[in-house]
Amino acid sequence: MAQALRGLFPEGGPLPHEVNLPLLASAGASEVIIRMLDVHNDSPPSVDVRDPLDDSTPLLLASQNGLSDTVQILIDAKADVEAQNDRGVTALMLAAAGGHVDVVSLLLDANANLNRQSTRSQRTALMEAARKGRGAVAQMLLNAGAQADLQDADGKTALVLAISANEQRVVRVLLEAKADMEVKCRQGKTAIMHAVGESKEIARLLLQAKPNLEAQNPDGETALILAMKNLSYDTVQLLLEAGASTHTQTGDGTTAESLAHQKGYEVMLIVLSNAKKVQKR
């Protein structure tokens, strides 16, 4: 599209003041944007003009599409790096979600707010990177001072969002940054509780960081109980090897062993029995 727009506005040709700047930015038509700003130097068009579709500014659109040259031009023209679209999302959040490392770097250099949260989802740029599996961006944001333990509208941290998306690389990055594993979401679940519902690889990563295995959700369920309910045999084994208690009771008095009996989880009973034998040695 950028080539088509350059054809419409050839160098030296007429350039109307009413050209759609958001469209030019989203297409990466950098040369045309520069000409617009130069030609109308006495009365330049606003670089923060809004797209009627979602209230995005040119910078938001260019950042979303990973157009670093256009982003730099707009930043140099004093575009508002904190502008938000109709969902309260900023350019940094969009660039982070897209994994656009170069754009993220430009926005950070322009002092974009690392920890700003969108108005609807309450997610930060780090959260967007985490849930989309953008490990390099997540590392960049953390290095720049992003807070790892802020919570979104569901009470989920970047770590929990990465776990829920089964993004092992980002989980590892966040754990290395000492992200808090004990923050509870609105459902009252900690990171390890979320992990046991995803994959044993994710659970293994968290267990290496030694989370509290006796933390309970509002129903009194531990990660072990939740793993058993999911019939996640391998994860149950990992939890037992990590020292998860089989005696912790839920709100109605259920333990891991009584749950296995109630549900007829024969394989789980064998796993629990073997764990007891090992613990007695």
Second CATH tier, the architecture of the domain at 1-113 = Alpha Horseshoe
> Into which percentage range does the β-strand content fall?
under 5%
What would the CATH topology of the domain at 1-113 be? Serine Threonine Protein Phosphatase 5, Tetratricopeptide repeat
SSE series: HHHHHHHHHHHHHHHHH
Give the number of helices: 17
The CATH class of the domain at 1-113 turns out to be Mainly Alpha
Which ranges are low-confidence, i.e. pLDDT below 50, for 5 or more consecutive residues?
Answer: 1-10
On the 0 to 100 scale, the average pLDDT is 88
Shape: elongated
Largest sheet: none
Number of strands: 0
Q: Roughly how many Å is the radius of gyration?
A: 25 Å
**CATH homologous superfamily classification of the domain at 1-113:** Ankyrin repeat-containing domain
Structural class designation: mainly alpha
Helical content (DSSP H or I, runs of 4+): 40-55%
> How many angstroms does the end-to-end distance come to?
70 Å
